[in-house]
Write a structure and sequence with these properties.
Helix content is 7%, strand content 36%. By secondary structure, the chain is mainly β. It has a single domain, classed as YVTN repeat-like/Quinoprotein amine dehydrogenase (Methylamine Dehydrogenase, Chain H, 7 Propeller), CATH 2.130.10. It has a six-stranded antiparallel beta sheet with strand order 3-4-28-27-26-25, with no helix packed on it. Strands 6-7-8-9-13 form a five-stranded mixed beta sheet, with no helix packed on it. It starts with 7 loop residues before the first strand and ends in a 6-residue tail after the last strand.
Length: 466
């Protein structure tokens, strides 16, 4: 019988590593391109250029998109013959899909934002079973309830922190009934908000919450300029982590900064690590797996791989037996490197049975062109927000017996960006579409946050085989 060890394991996604075969780290390239921040700056500059072009075209004015409507609250638009359509005879509302039905859509304007541009998202289920989501936007975070019929009911919003400017880079994670919100904006810090406040909000009177009066807590004293790329939490051990903070020459070199959440009203800094330089993302776990040797917080190994461009994010397949990770690279399609050289996103499989010598055992190449981004694993399925491709659901249950990835199948998808459906390869290698989503609601509804339009609610089709 497995006896879990109370050992902290932070599965960090280092921007210096990334593809189809594990390789030793090129230390010269790591120092020159990644530790220096050059590659990160290149990607941010490219994204800002792309987003400026979309903004000039009016793509981010979500008011242009027609409202979702149904005759009855229980109605939805089924994925039929590969499409879900809520406005007949209009290609902008004809979404490619497979075994995911469309239950609702709300524009960013309907979700209280004047500037839109969706980013991260997270959710919470109350003790009595009500489901809520937090939807990050350029100018703050929107809150909505997901009804039993899969409809979004807007309840209010929390603006970006008072001393910070708007920023598209806004990430959210959950801690019990709380969410923690970080941003690349300077002087933002980490907002801590209790979603239980939403339980008494009247939808007829949405609330604009105050950073001065309504935050459960705020942390940022250890962030050199109040900026972070992402935030993570571990409910089991009551802590949060900020990663990718700037500048890189600070004490912890933009790596990992831990803060105590035992009392969310008074978060305190626990320390950190800059041993491997910049950290872009992470999953924070109590280690439960086959490697019995490691019990302390330390960098155990750093491994590269074929086609490495910019490792973005990953998730263990099973939090209770941490033997495999599914990871993605956000820039290999742009760089045209490794298995992604033709522009099709690649999900990389890692065997971490040995934390000292992880093995890159295989990969899955997606069927349509695009760029992969945030993914989360639930019950053996990876739910992936892949920018203009929308959300993809991969069946990973074959990986423990066949870690080459040959048994992985895309069992479902919902393409939130029909504007590029006509292109060769069925998609576009560009930074628009869905940034993130939340797949962990007990009801099975999935809330997809998109950069351009707003938030979609989808659910596994009735009778679907997966």
């Amino acid at each position: 019988m497995l006896t879990p060890k109370k050992t902290l394991a932070v599965m960090a996604i280092f921007a210096a590593i990334a593809a189809a075969k594990e390789l030793p780290v090129n230390l010269e390239l790591k120092a020159e391109l990644y530790d220096s921040g050059i590659r990160h700056e290149q990607i941010m500059a490219l994204k800002n250029r792309v987003w400026s072009e979309f903004e000039a075209q009016g793509a981010y004015d979500s008011r242009q998109y027609k409202k979702f409507s149904v005759k009855k609250a229980s109605d939805f638009y089924a994925c039929t013959n590969g499409f879900a359509t809520y406005i007949p005879n209009d290609s902008r509302y004809r979404f490619r899909c497979k075994e995911l039905d469309l239950y609702d859509f709300k524009t960013h304007a309907e979700l209280g934002s004047t500037q839109g541009r969706g980013a991260g998202s997270w959710g919470w289920t109350s003790p009595d079973g009500r489901e809520f989501v937090a939807i990050a936007q350029l100018d703050g975070t929107s809150f909505a309830e997901v009804t039993k019929q899969g409809k979004l009911v807007y309840l209010g919003r929390l603006p970006q922190y008072t001393t910070a400017e708007p920023s598209l880079w806004r990430e959210i994670k959950g801690y019990k009934s709380y969410i923690v919100i970080g941003s690349e904006a300077e002087k933002h810090g980490v907002q801590i908000f209790d979603l239980a406040k939403l339980l008494t909000v009247d939808p007829a009177s949405p609330v604009v919450f105050s950073n001065q009066k309504d935050l459960a807590g705020w942390w940022g004293d250890a962030l050199p300029i109040g900026r972070s790329h992402n935030v993570l939490t571990n409910e089991e051990l009551n802590y949060g982590v900020a990663v990718g903070f700037q500048p890189r020459n600070s004490t912890y070199k933009a790596g990992l900064l831990f803060f105590d959440l035992t009392d969310p009203a008074n978060p305190t800094t626990l320390g950190g690590s800059g041993a491997d330089g910049y950290v872009h993302d992470a999953q924070c776990l109590v280690y439960r797996g086959p490697d019995e040797k490691h019990k302390n917080i330390t960098i155990i190994s750093t491994t590269s791989y074929e086609g490495a461009s910019y490792t973005h994010q990953g998730w263990v397949l099973d939090t209770q037996w941490q033997q495999h990770i599914i990871a993605d690279d956000e820039y290999d399609e742009v760089d045209a490197r490794g298995p992604a050289r033709e522009g099709y996103p690649v999900s990389y499989i890692w065997d971490i049975s040995s934390l000292e010598k992880p093995k890159q055992t295989g990969h899955y190449k997606h069927l349509r062109k695009g760029i992969d981004h945030n993914q989360f694993v639930k019950d053996g399925f990876s739910y992936q927000s892949n920018y203009a491709l929308g959300i993809s659901v991969l069946d990973l249950r074959s990986v423990p017996r066949d870690p080459t990835g040959k048994g992985i199948k895309e069992v479902a998808y919902f393409d939130t960006y029909p504007e590029d459906d006509h292109l060769p390869g069925g998609g576009n290698v560009t930074f628009t579409g869905t940034w993130s989503h939340y797949p962990f609601l007990p009801s099975g509804f999935i809330v997809i946050n998109t950069m351009d339009r707003g938030a979609f609610v989808v659910k596994k089709s009735k009778g679907a085989a997966w």
